[in-house]
């Protein structure tokens, strides 16, 4: 369950227009690789 919450948090940070430090494309790819490996 914590893996889902971590992925959700990353998704929200990546797609929230209010977030000052959006994830870069490489950070998105790293997060997705981590989720798929989990």
What is the gist of this entry?
By secondary structure, the protein is mainly alpha-helical. It has 2 helices and no strands.
Name the average pLDDT.
84
Residues in helices, as a percent range: over 70%
Radius of gyration: 10 Å
Per DSSP, what share of the residues sits in E-state strands of 2 or more residues?
Answer: under 5%
Q: What structural category characterises the helix and strand content?
A: mainly alpha
Q: What does the overall shape look like?
A: flat
Spatial separation of the terminal alpha carbons: 11 Å
Annotate the secondary structure layout.
Layout: H1 2-15, H2 25-37
Explain what this protein looks like in three dimensions:
This protein is an all-alpha fold. It has one domain. 71% of the residues lie in helices and 0% in strands. The chain is built from two helices and no strands. It has helices at 2-15, 25-37. Helix 1 packs antiparallel against helix 2. The termini are close together. The model has no long low-confidence stretch (mean pLDDT 84).
List keywords for this structure.
mainly alpha, 38 residues
